[in-house]
Amino acid sequence: MSVMKKIMIFGAASAIASETAKCFAKEGADLFLVDLNLDRLNTVKNDILVTGGKANIEVMAFDATNFEGHNDLINSAIEKMGGLDALLIAHGTLPSQEKLNQNPKDIVREFNINGLSVISLASFAANYFEEKKSGCIAAISSVAGDRGRQSNYIYGSAKGSISIFMSGLRNRLSKSGVNVLTIKPGFVNTPMTVDMPKNLLYASPQKVGELIFKAMKSGKDIAYTPGFWRLVMFIIRHIPEGIFKKLSL
Amino acid sequence: MNLDSYSSWGRYPKIKPKDAKRVFWINEFPNLEEIEGNILPYGLGKSYGDSCLNENGTLIDLSGLNKFISFNEETGLLRCEAGVTLATILDYFVPRGWFLSVTPGTKFITVGGAIGNDVHGKNHHKMGTFGCHVTQFELLRSNGTRTICSPEQNSELFSATIGGLGLTGIITWAEFYLKPCPSAFFAMESVKFGSVKEFFEINEASDKDYDYSVSWVDCSAGGNNLGRGLYTRGNHASPKDYNLPPLPKPGLIPFPFDAPFINNLSVIAFCMLYYNKQFTKKEASIVHYNPFFYPLDAVDGWNKAYGKNGFLQYQFVVPFGNDEYTVNTILREVVKSGMSSFLTVLKTFGNIKSPGMLSFPRPGITLATDFRFDGEKTLKELAKLDEIVKFAGGILYPAKDARMSGKDFFDFYPEANEFVKYIDPKFSSSFWRRVNSN
Ligand SMILES: Cc1cc2nc3c(=O)[nH]c(=O)nc-3n(C[C@H](O)[C@H](O)[C@H](O)COP(=O)(O)OP(=O)(O)OC[C@H]3O[C@@H](n4cnc5c(N)ncnc54)[C@H](O)[C@@H]3O)c2cc1C
Ligand SMILES: NC(=O)c1ccc[n+]([C@@H]2O[C@H](COP(=O)([O-])OP(=O)(O)OC[C@H]3O[C@@H](n4cnc5c(N)ncnc54)[C@H](OP(=O)(O)O)[C@@H]3O)[C@@H](O)[C@H]2O)c1
Asked: At what angle do helices A38-50 and A15-26 cross, to 10 degrees?
């Protein structure tokens, strides 16, 4: 279990990451929270303070696709917080695959949000942590990134790109003692999935947020959240392509 | 949007809204005026009947509005968004020494829902209703205005909204007092009684010394055993006085499928076992707040045990005086019908008055019992009970109702004639249309 006292979170207003933030704050960590909307961030900040954080909490509105700003933002967080112990990247969108099929020009934007911005942010942070020789870089990928399905393969391929990137980064940073954690949630009941019919496989953001917190502290490499998805995805990944392509998934 | 999940706890009546809008951010409500047709706030649908339903209308689902806003460590004053659940409050605050001032028999309800029905719990005789501890809330009306309501500010709207069945507007956040608690545990005593008369005797001897009390009544037993049951009473357990056990691990058992497990046979078997599980007259134990307040919450979705047709709960309060006679008459009728289930509870309400205009609790004795829905037969049976309740000057609880007549509702709640002034013109519910049409 590593000590994590200074945490930066992208997508901090997300249902999932805001729960993870609460867990860290309850333990006495200071937080630097980034998301698109400042009003939402302040709502999240109050929630964290009431539920037990006596922490210092900085909030910052920032669009993750502002690639030019990545380096400065991370540096200013490091400066404001007097260093960083962990970075969690959790922002994302779930575009309608059908709409993207009709308007392929929107694919670039979706890929930038869900794939490239994460890769870029983690890369800037990696240089800092590599030098520091400790810490944790965690990013939320998805079970959707384990295999392409017709219902959401743009989202899925962007998430898949994160998984592969993180695997490479882990390989690079393992010798520096930096933990690189790929998080793969299954279905979670959040604003992102509000329009989808719910079933027993759905987990609450509280539960998933807490599992992420635990995974970050334990130094895991890959965390399916909840854990049963590891088995589900193992099976899905091993269905032969000839059969898989005919399934309506 | 998946609309199937927007049912009520009794799963009767089977009606659907035409749309539901889930709100996640307190400052980002949809424009209510632009929604076609009428609207109704919805918490977690733990009301039994149709007061949280809006057939062919739109539900505004507030369960995503789940952030805390502020807490005063000295006074216990908590402010949170309306969709925060009582379960979440307990999770965060019991470890810090604070408990809900009032809680119903399930913790999976929202703060907005607790106010909308002005819910009561096992400590009504000491603490009144949930609404008694509310200091203020913000009410969003369909014209977009947000009004602070408190006993001092917009006090009529404050009263109308507490127990106001969601008809006066949407509570966006509320502020209320928690009460100090010495631990997560309760010192509980369970006493067997053989009749309603004995229940009253035990109750009289308990009310002063015990903060919490409720009784389970065996509704399968007639004759000499009529009105037998278990009286449970308790107080917060302080580590100073008791050896407290370790905290239990959390976990829910989901109820897996729709199956009519509850039939006459299983009810009788359950009641026999439950009544006789306790050999001695009196048993004492130290229990965690979960089994103490929320034994039913342990099985997620237990309402499915009644099968696809769903069930009704019948809850009334009759004033002290003829109460023993009334309760006996009703129990006799219920046992004779053979239609009720094992969930029958009896409790006395105290005389702490709620600020709520349409609040249900009032001094007297309240009985709640479940009936699986068997069509006309069930409705006829309940209509019989209505007559007994009315004769005794009693009233029914809208939060549990799917069938009382409009005339009865307005007779039970004459304040409703004043209440209508505060209804938001855009708001309505299946319950409200029903009691205004028959
Ligand atoms: C197992 C079990 C035990 C129970 N025990 C008790 C008990 O002991 N005592 C008791 O009093 N009740 C009890 N109940 C009933 C339950 O506590 C109430 O029906 C409660 O109001 C349900 O809250 P909810 O959040 O699910 O709200 P819903 O059922 O969704 O809504 C309840 C009402 O409040 C309105 N409402 C919801 N949110 C808002 C808001 N934000 N603003 C304005 N109006 C709103 C709705 O329109 C509706 O009229 C029990 C229920 C169950 C299932
Ligand atoms: N919910 C699931 O079932 C599920 C499953 C697997 C993985 N995930 C992943 O888990 C993470 C959290 O998801 P969630 O369900 O909790 O989602 P959520 O509550 O919808 O939160 C997503 C957050 O990301 C923000 N965001 C979107 N675009 C952004 C941008 N360009 N720059 C900065 N922030 C941006 C959103 O802001 P706005 O709302 O203001 O746009 C929102 O606050 C996401 O990465 C998601 O892909 C979710």
From this structure: 40
